[in-house]
Amino acid sequence: MTRLGAAAVLAAVLSGSWSTGPALPVARSEVAVATLNDDVYVIGGYANGNVDQGLVEFYEPATRTWRAVASLPRGLNHVGAVAFGGKLYTFGGFSEQNDAPVADANVYDPGADSWTPIAPLPRALGSISVAVLGNEIHLVGGRDAHSVRTHLVYDPATNRYSARAPLPVGRDHMGLVPFGGKLYAVGGRIDTPAHNVVEVDIYDPRTNAWSTGAPMPTARSGMAVAVYHDTIYAIGGEASGMAAAFTNNEGYDPAANRWSDYAALPEGRHGTGAGVVGDKLYVPAGAPVPGGSQQSRTLLIFTL
User: Fold this and answer.
1) What 8-state DSSP symbol labels residue 243?
2) Element holding 6 (H helix, E strand)
3) Rg for the chain (alpha carbons), in Å?
4) 34, 51, 111, 251: which could form a disulfide with 81 (CB 3.0–4.6 Å)?
5) pTM for this prediction
6) Residue 39 φ/ψ, nearest 5 degrees
7) Cα distance between the two ends of the chain
8) Where is 121: in which H helix or E strand?
9) Where are the chain's structural domains?
10) Domain spanning 17-303: which superfamily?
C-alpha cells in the first residue's frame, strides 16, 4: 500500500465526523468562545480589518441562526470568557494585535442585553485561560510582556480575586477545562508560537496542587479545547513557520491518562474556541493560517 493509501485508510477509521453549519455574519479570529443557555457565543477578536473588535454574536443551534447582542465595553482580542450563573464573564485581553494587555473584567446579562464592569484583574493580562470549578471562576496563565504562571480565582458572590497554586509552567494561548472536579491545562506557548508546549497540568482544588498528565502528542497553541463525551479535545492550533494552521484533533481520556487521534478538521484553524450543546461540538470562526492575516466565517461541527 502506498503512503497516501495508508493515510486514507487511517483517516477513514478515526472516530467522529465534521460538518458545516450556517456561516457567521462576520469573519473573525482571536475570539473568545463560551456556551450560555444552549447558545454558542463568539466574543471580540479580529474582524472587519481591526484587531480591537467589541462584536459579540451568538449561534442558536435550535434555530440554526446567528444574532448580534450588546458589544463589549471596548474592543479587545484574546479575551478570557466563561458562562456562570446564567451570565457571561470576560477577563483581560489585548487592545492591540496580540499586545497591550488590559485588566478589564465584565459581566453580560442576556436578559438585559447589557455589560457591567466587575472588579478589574489584579494585573493586566491577555490570553488568559478561564474555567468554572464549583462556585468559582479560575483564571490561569496568560501574558503581559511574557507568559505568566498566575492562577487566580474570581468569586462572583463577593466580586473578589484570590490566588491559588501557580501553574507549573507559565504559558498563554492554552486550553483550560474542568473535568471530574479538577482543572486540566492543555498545551499553549511560552511567549511565542515558536515555543509551543505539550504539557498537561492537572489542578486539584482539594490539595491546591498541580500534577502532570500524559503530554499532548502535538505541541500546539491557540487550539479550541472542550470536554465532549468524557474526553478532552484539543482541536487545531498554530506554530511558527506553518503555511496553514493545524488540523489535528486529539482527545485526552482523563481516566486512562491517554491521548487518541480523532477525525481531523477539514481545514486548519487557530484563534478560536469550542462550545458543546447537546450532542454536538461547535468550533466557530478562527484563522486558517498562523497569525492574524486571515479570518474565517465558518462554523465547524464535530459529532461522534
Assistant:
1) S
2) helix 3-13
3) 18
4) 34
5) 0.95
6) -120, 150
7) 28
8) none
9) 17-303
10) Kelch-type beta propeller (2.120.10.80)
